[in-house]
Amino acid sequence: MTDPTLALEIKKLIVEALALEDIAPEEIETSAPLFVEGLGLDSIDALELAMALEEKYGVTVGDDPDENQKIFFSVESLMGFVQKGS
Questions:
Q1: Which domains does the chain have, with CATH numbers?
Q2: Mind listing the pLDDT tens digit of every residue in the chain (86 residues)?
Q3: Dihedral over alpha carbons 6, 11, 17, 21 (to 10 degrees)
Q4: Per the count of CB atoms within 10 A, which of 25, 34, 43, 55 is most buried?
């Protein structure tokens, strides 16, 4: 269940929270990996993104690295996390 409005919101949040100047939100593929390949984000980016998601949507990321890897895999997985948590 893809919500194009939420997808664009999260893409904008990623670009703004991580100050990605060379990429437009619309250029981020919804199902593409965000870390390593894809956008090439790192663990610091994940922390900043987690704080931005908590501030905007009131969702809190836990301490389980395996679960967090699933949550932060793509915009699509972030959408599922936000929809489940809000």
A1: 4-85 (1.10.1200.10)
A2: 568 899 999 999 999 999 998 999 999 999 999 998 888 899 899 999 999 999 999 999 998 989 999 999 999 999 999 999 85
A3: -150
A4: 34
Instruction: Give whole-number Cα distances, 15 to 31, 65, 66, in Å.
Output: 16, 23, 24
Exposure b/e, 27-56, CB count within 10 A at least 16 = b: ebebeeebbeeebebeeebbeebbebbeee
Cβ-Cβ contacts under 8 Å for 21 (sequence gap 6 or more) = none
